[in-house]
From TrEMBL:
The keyword ATP-binding is annotated on this UniProt entry: yes
GO molecular function terms listed in the Swiss-Prot or TrEMBL record: ATP binding; ATP hydrolysis activity
Keywords, sorted A to Z: ATP-binding, Nucleotide-binding, Transport
Pfam families, alphabetized: ABC_tran
Name the record gives this protein: ABC transporter ATP-binding protein
Stored InterPro entries: AAA+_ATPase (IPR003593), ABC_transporter-like_ATP-bd (IPR003439), ABC_transporter-like_CS (IPR017871), ABC_transporter_ATP-bind (IPR050166), P-loop_NTPase (IPR027417)
Listed CDD domains: ABC_NrtD_SsuB_transporters (cd03293)
Length: 267
């Protein structure tokens, strides 16, 4: 993607709606589900803002409600109490790439453009630009089975970016990848976030991944999920998993996570 096209995309995101001081705002959000013996409280009184252009990672033990919270922000479910506001419709990227195997990489992205109402004559050029942005130039005609796991996630990222939302929600998108591929995609995501000015809310259970990527790490307690701790990550980008400041902060956060797990009697 050329510098002019990146600038155009960033401008489009900035002008998508009236100026607000948040990309997402959760105000005293709780969520319950029916279960044995009555309603089971999964999320309890969560208040959290994601600022425009901010990268926030949401961390916690398995079952603490991270994905449930992301689904609420995405509008896939409604909170039992409280309110959620977003600056426009969020884009969502899952752990599984969820690409249609009968479509090429390019056509998977074009589908998102078509649903957004982009004229047919413009879709190919926009798709090629998005593929270039995620370092997949020339992959337009490749089928899903021809792509590696990392390449599939890049296509999924390009498809999410095709929605031109100012807020990208990511639910453990690199969890199934090997360590080297995951590290490469950390670099790519950081680059795309920097170039586009997106706001990102990224769910993970990997502490070092959380610190590697984010400007702010939010730790949820074990069920019911509450905001237990927050850390500002004042480590310059680009960062590496093995960097000493990343390792040091990761150790502090890991101890807090272990404390939450012990406090709730989970193993």
């Amino acid at each position: 993607m050329s510098p002019q096209e990146v600038t155009t995309m960033a401008t489009t995101l900035a002008e998508a709606g009236p100026a607000v001081d948040y990309a997402a705002r959760l105000d005293h959000v709780s969520k319950s589900f029916p279960g044995p013996g009555g309603q089971q409280l999964v999320l309890d009184d969560i208040s959290l803002d994601v600022a425009p252009g901010e990268f926030v990672t949401l961390l916690g033990a398995s079952g603490c409600g991270k994905s449930t919270l992301l689904n609420l922000v995405a509008g896939l479910d409604r909170p039992s109490a409280g309110s959620i506001d977003t600056d426009g419709r969020p884009a969502l990227m899952f752990q599984e790439h969820a690409l249609f195997p009968w479509l090429t990489a390019g056509k998977n992205i074009e589908l998102a453009l078509r649903l957004r109402g982009v004229p047919k004559g413009e879709r190919r050029d926009k798709t090629e630009s998005l593929l270039e942005l995620v370092r997949l130039k020339g992959a337009y005609g490749k089928r899903v089975h021809e792509l590696s796991g990392g390449m599939r996630q890049r296509v999924a990222l390009a498809r999410a970016l095709a929605q031109e939302s100012g807020l990208l929600l990511m639910d453990e998108p690199f969890a199934a990848l090997d360590a080297i591929t995951r590290d490469v995609l950390h670099d790519e995501l950081t680059r795309v976030w920097t170039e586009t000015g997106l706001s990102v809310l990224f769910v993970t259970h990997n502490v070092r991944e959380a610190v590697r990527l984010a400007q702010r790490v939010v730790l949820l307690s074990s069920r019911p999920g509450k905001v237990a701790h927050e850390w500002a990550v004042d480590i310059p980008q680009p960062r590496r998993i093995e960097d000493a400041p990343v390792a040091e902060l990761s150790l502090e956060i890991t101890e807090a996570l272990r404390g939450e797990i012990r406090r709730h009697g989970q193993h």
